[in-house]
Amino acid sequence: MTRVTISDVARRAGVSTMTISRVVNNRGEVHPETRERILQVIEELGYRPSSVARSLITQKSQTVGLVVPDITNPFFPDIVRGAEDVAYREGYTLYVSNTDEKPDREALVMERLESSMVDGLILCAPRQPGEQLHPLLKRHRHVVVINREVPLELAGSVVNDDLFGSMRAVHHLLASGRNRIGCLAGPPNSRTGQLRVQGFETALAATGQRLDPTLIETCDPNEHGGHVGLLRLLERHPDLDGVVAFNDLVALGALLAAQEKQLAVPTQLAVVGNDDIRMAALATPPLTTIRIDRYVLGQMAMEMLLGQIQGKPCRTVTLRPELVVRQSAP
What we know:
Strand 3, helix 7 (130-138) and strand 4 form a beta-alpha-beta unit. The protein has three domains: 6-49, 434 Repressor (Amino-terminal Domain) (Orthogonal Bundle), CATH 1.10.260; 63-160 and 294-320, Response regulator (Rossmann fold, 3-Layer(aba) Sandwich), CATH 3.40.50; 162-292, Response regulator (Rossmann fold, 3-Layer(aba) Sandwich), CATH 3.40.50.2300. The protein has helices at residues 6-13, 17-24, 32-45, 51-58, 75-89, 103-115, 130-138, 162-175, 191-206, 223-236, 248-260, 294-309, and strands at 63-68, 93-98, 120-124, 143-146, 156-160, 181-186, 216-218, 242-245, 270-275, 288-291, 316-319, 322-324. It is of the alpha/beta class. 45% of the residues lie in helices and 17% in strands.
């Protein structure tokens, strides 16, 4: 079926395309009878204005981009849902892009969204180092970064207090009598992972323990990474009796590795995750974890972004997570 154009409407209504544009965009003076006739023709022909043409005139596309490092990770869909609900309510369309944890792909996605003239960008847990990321942020008019603070002249930020959450997890393990605690730190280029390692080190240092760097193992942020990572930790420290994981997927992989090594959880090894994804409560045993309200994270990021579009300044908001105690580390 041929798309109805503004010229088709103008021909049928007997007016200029400029007059049609004034009516569609509700701008300028148009005689009430003429306006009524044009609206009737628009309805009869089923005309829908081109969003591309409108964006060239208004410099607004009513679209925003949201970039995530791994759409298969259950942490991110709830963020997307929170952002989407706010965008839908305010009349915006959300474009979601996945980067597969690859910094180069993340940079390319940011460039393509810039070319697509999105009104704003939400960037989740970016993997690029600051010297690469910051110039790209400058090219976007309005940006909010989730789970990483950046200079306010570049973007707003909505972050989880990962330092506090990691310290809370370690303190819980220490209070339950664990003496040899390891850390499955996630990818080394993750700012979230870096902060959680810092929290791990800070909590242990507060007890007077000497920090042993061999108790920290970087890993992929998924089940395989947790499985391989715990096996490596156990090779170096067979007496390991507690572990804090980068996220719940890593913790689930660690549970599998413990089972392979015939280590009873939590009797011989206590495991604490991060995020409280839905699978955490269904694990065997159910996973103790640090809960992050991901839906609220997405909502707040989108509300902040739309505020920037309306002229509000960039700011940083920090959300504090909570410990959820289950059977993997009672």
